[in-house]
Write a structure and sequence with these properties.
- The chain has seven helices and seven strands.
- The chain has 323 residues and is α/β, with parallel strands linked by helices.
- The strands form two sheets. Strands 4-3-5-6-7 form a five-stranded parallel sheet, with helices on both faces. A two-stranded antiparallel ribbon has the order 1-2.
- Helix 6 links the parallel strand 6 and strand 7.
């Protein structure tokens, strides 16, 4: 039986206390020193979200058009969005959307996530990831011009370099995987902005716990946890750039002319069976046999958190019926 690696236990970003540091260096929380979004970014996000309206196939505002949120990323995200297995089919995010009367009938979430489509596959279209995602748009009679929101969750392929107290993300080619992941996220955000002319918002989602996967396998801990820091750094860099005008390296330009407004989606990580502040835990029974991909119960947890988040977020009025 695969067990949680004894050498790894961490505090979820959402459960950090003031002054607490990961590896003696990295402060937690979703944003700079709090789980609360800074006021200026919050106000920007509300204003930008208010501009999300139904669009026709050419990207023009039409009351009978559609609001499209495109999910992109890896196989885990694909399953959590819409798992084709019978046991999980009713437990996924898109299944919950179809059953909820509280969801905007003009809004469509398209599952563009793909097996094997790791973070480096979405920085451009050389791997054809976007071509495949847009085939799925077309299958729903939607177009790239209608995409206004991107929902992203991903990982690096076969990560091997974890963070240390000495990590410098801008130092040389031998980067920790969290640093490399952050670079890929920033490049993806710029590419998305160029590819989808009407995109306005980019929500970044963390991975679920990966501590049941054996070391050296597809994507074990501490990488699932440490990608959370990369996500935090990217979002905070955008916040800082909008406030001061200063571009942070190695992430590059994250201003609104270069990338969509970015924010956290729901934070999914918890340290195995150790209950985090809101009670979330991850059991071995939540996973498939490889202990990396989510099983039906994990998909159900993710879907529930997603639905609750977007039904209550002040930055997603487009998601809800009657708004």
């Amino acid at each position: 039986m695969t067990s949680v690696p004894r050498h790894f236990h961490a505090v979820p970003l959402t459960d950090f206390r003031d002054g607490e540091l990961y590896l003696g260096k990295y402060p937690g929380f979703l944003y700079d020193a709090s789980n609360q979004m800074p006021l200026n970014h919050d106000m920007d996000g509300r204003a930008i979200a208010a501009g999300v309206v139904p669009l026709d196939r050419n990207g023009n505002p039409r009351s009978n058009g559609k609001i499209v949120a495109l999910a992109i990323g890896m196989s885990n995200w694909k399953r959590e969005m819409r798992d084709r297995r019978k046991a999980a089919r009713k437990a996924t995010f898109l299944s919950l959307l179809a059953e909820s009367s509280r969801v905007n009938s003009r809004m469509r979430v398209v599952n563009g996530a793909q097996g094997g489509a790791a973070a480096d596959g979405w920085i451009n279209n050389s791997s054809g990831c976007y071509t495949e995602a847009e085939k799925r748009l077309a299958a729903m009679r939607l177009t790239p011009a209608q995409v206004q929101i991107v929902l992203y969750k991903n990982a690096n392929k076969h990560p091997s370099a974890s963070l240390t107290a000495d990590t410098q993300c801008s130092a040389g080619p031998s980067l920790a995987d969290a640093c490399l992941y952050g670079i890929y996220v920033a490049e993806m955000a710029r590419y998305v902005k160029r590819r989808y002319c009407n995109v306005k918002q980019l929500f970044l989602h963390s991975r679920i716990f990966a501590g049941y996967a054996a070391a050296g396998t597809l994507n074990p801990e501490p990488f699932a946890y440490e990608y959370g820091f990369a996500t935090k750094w990217i979002i905070q860099s955008q916040i800082n750039q909008i406030k001061s005008g200063t571009i942070t390296e190695p992430w590059g330009d994250l201003g609104y002319s270069a990338v969509p407004w970015m924010a956290w989606g729901p934070y999914f990580w918890a340290s195995g069976t150790t209950s985090r502040g809101d009670g979330l835990i991850w059991l071995q029974s939540d996973y498939d046999a490889d202990m990396t991909h989510p099983g039906p119960s994990a998909c159900r947890k993710v879907a529930g958190m997603m639905l609750n988040f977007y039904l209550t977020s002040p930055h997603a009025p487009w998601f809800r019926a009657g708004e």
